[in-house]
Design a protein that fits this description.
It is a single chain. The protein is 40% helix and 27% strand. By secondary structure, it is an alpha+beta fold. It has 2 domains: 57 residues, Multidrug-efflux Transporter Regulator, Chain: A, Domain 2 (Orthogonal Bundle), CATH 1.10.1660.10; 143 residues, Multidrug-efflux Transporter 1 Regulator Bmrr, Chain A (Alpha-Beta Barrel), CATH 3.20.80. The strands form 2 sheets. The chain has an 8-stranded antiparallel beta sheet with strand order 4-9-11-10-6-7-5-8. Helix 4 runs antiparallel to helix 5. The chain starts with 5 loop residues before the first strand and ends with a strand.
Length: 262
């Protein structure tokens, strides 16, 4: 390759162990443009120095990195480091989600709903700091998780200490686009710049779920069935409180469906 400064696409593809069609795709999206294109024949020629670039692009593509972020990596310097760190966070989140999905499959295989009994409880009035969220139904869990992460960062920036578990509200009737609030109780007066709200006191049908949030459907169904049995009508919004369980950072979800305001 060093004896031939520029080679046709076929030879270049052979050297970097990629299909010609892949190199044409890289050219089309602007990731790896040939060093020279013959205007009369359309033949693409590549330089030897482009081989490491082709290899890097393929390596990143195999990791699922989007073309726009690959371009940032190729830019080098701080931009490249930030892009790679962002991809590391993405893959870590995917691994966490994969572990949750495996746990859910294990629960399905075992026939275990991990659902506690439905209880009628009194929810006391609470002042909380809130952050609205809006998420597609098919991305609801991730959307709420992102909103809680943003609220956590906001509290940290305001030097406001949390005084209880994270939570979220949901409408009674879910649609393709779901809107609600994530919330957290805080210590002392609410710092400037934070949005405070009061969760009203009410009675609710409630259950503590210790399994995956993907299995919350039966919990809600049981709560609504209990209200039907009592002749009560649910009222919005429903609440979920995310409670730490044990030393292994497991999280339980207390589902509460209000039916009578205090």
């Amino acid at each position: 390759m060093s004896e031939r400064p520029e080679v046709l696409i076929g030879e270049f593809a052979r050297r970097c162990r990629l299909p010609v069609s892949t190199l044409r795709y890289y050219d089309r999206i602007g990731l790896l443009v040939p060093a020279f294109v013959d205007e009369s024949s359309g033949y693409r020629r590549y330089a030897a120095g482009q081989l490491p670039t082709a290899e890097l692009i393929w390596r990143l593509r195999e990791l699922g990195v989007a073309p726009q972020r690959i371009a940032r990596v190729m830019a080098g310097g701080v931009t490249a480091t930030e892009a790679l760190l962002a991809e590391r966070r993405r893959i870590t989140q995917e691994l966490d989600q994969g572990r949750r999905h495996l746990a859910e499959l294990d629960a399905l295989l075992a026939g275990d709903l991990a659902m506690g009994p439905i209880e009628l409880i009194e929810l006391t009035s609470r002042q909380v700091v809130v952050l609205p969220y809006s998420a597609r139904f098919d991305d609801l869990e991730a959307g709420v998780t992102r909103a809680i992460a943003l609220l956590r960062a906001t509290l940290r920036e305001a030097e406001q200490r949390r005084a209880g578990p994270w939570g979220a509200t949901f409408p009674l009737d879910l649609t393709d686009e779901v809107e609600g609030m994530v919330f957290a109780p805080v210590e002392g007066a609410v710092a400037a710049g934070l949005v405070a709200a009061t969760l009203p006191a009410c009675r609710a049908a409630s259950s503590l779920h210790r399994g995956s949030t993907l299995a919350l459907g039966p919990v809600y169904r049981a709560a609504f069935d209990e209200l039907d049995r009592l002749g009560e009508k649910p009222c919005a919004p429903v609440r979920e409180d995310y409670l730490p369980l044990g030393p292994e950072r497991a999280v339980g979800v207390r589902v509460s469906v209000p039916f009578a305001l205090a």
